[in-house]
Backbone:
């Protein structure tokens, strides 16, 4: 199957560069609304059979134009919400708080899943909830599923679960608002990334904190 991981449209706290991860969260800016409205045309070549969104309002608002265009219901699932910032919630993302948040997310992707976000969830918990929704989508019978989620969560999960996306690649490649990662595969056989925000993905050697580059040595 094809799995389209779509980051939500721009929010006011993206503009203010805040670690905003709690539900229900803010809506979209005017730009975010335009980004969401452009998605049906951008994805017109995809035979999408199901649309999922997280419990944060911004993903549901971003998914709504596509779902309406396709005549589909938006299936809301908590498991694909943003990585909880815990004690770092609403702190500026361009400070040490933001660096701790993203370093923790990518430590999980690298295998340190027992590490816990300060005052928040562990990597094992975050991956398990995301895995569960991906498994549901894969079992839906749809050949292509659009899953509307969040920048840090998408980058973390793909670095941990997708064969040709490693931590260096995901850390070095921010995912802009309404950026789309196209995957092919299944939970049983594994996943391969076909493109990352429109770019072809090769094996790897800014719009809010979840869209920043992580690590100075990544290519």
Residues:
């Amino acid at each position: 199957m094809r799995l389209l991981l779509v980051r939500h449209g721009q929010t006011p706290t993206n503009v203010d560069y805040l670690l905003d991860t709690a539900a229900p969260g803010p809506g979209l800016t005017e730009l975010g609304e335009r980004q969401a409205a452009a998605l049906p045309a951008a994805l017109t070549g995809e035979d999408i059979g199901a649309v999922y969104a997280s419990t944060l309002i911004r993903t549901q608002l971003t998914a709504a134009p596509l779902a309406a265009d396709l005549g589909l219901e938006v299936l809301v699932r908590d498991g694909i919400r943003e990585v909880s910032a815990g004690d770092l919630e609403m702190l500026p993302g361009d400070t040490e708080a933001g660096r701790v948040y993203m370093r923790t997310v990518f430590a999980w992707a690298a295998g340190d899943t027992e590490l816990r976000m300060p005052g928040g969830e562990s990597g094992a918990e975050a991956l398990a909830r995301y895995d569960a929704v991906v498994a549901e989508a894969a079992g839906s019978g749809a050949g292509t599923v659009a899953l509307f989620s969040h920048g840090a969560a998408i980058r973390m999960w793909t670095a941990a679960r997708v064969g040709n996306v490693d931590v260096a690649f995901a850390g070095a490649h921010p995912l802009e608002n309404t950026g789309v990662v196209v995957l092919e595969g299944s939970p049983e056989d594994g996943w391969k990334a076909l493109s990352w925000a429109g770019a072809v993905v090769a094996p790897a050697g800014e719009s809010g904190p979840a869209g920043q580059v992580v690590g100075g040595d990544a290519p």
Remarks:
- Residues 215-219 have pLDDT under 50 and may be disordered.
- The beta strands are 2-7, 50-53, 74-76, 144-149, 180-186, 190-196, 199-200.
- The longest helix spans residues 123-138.
- Residues 7 and 150 are 5 Å apart (CA to CA).
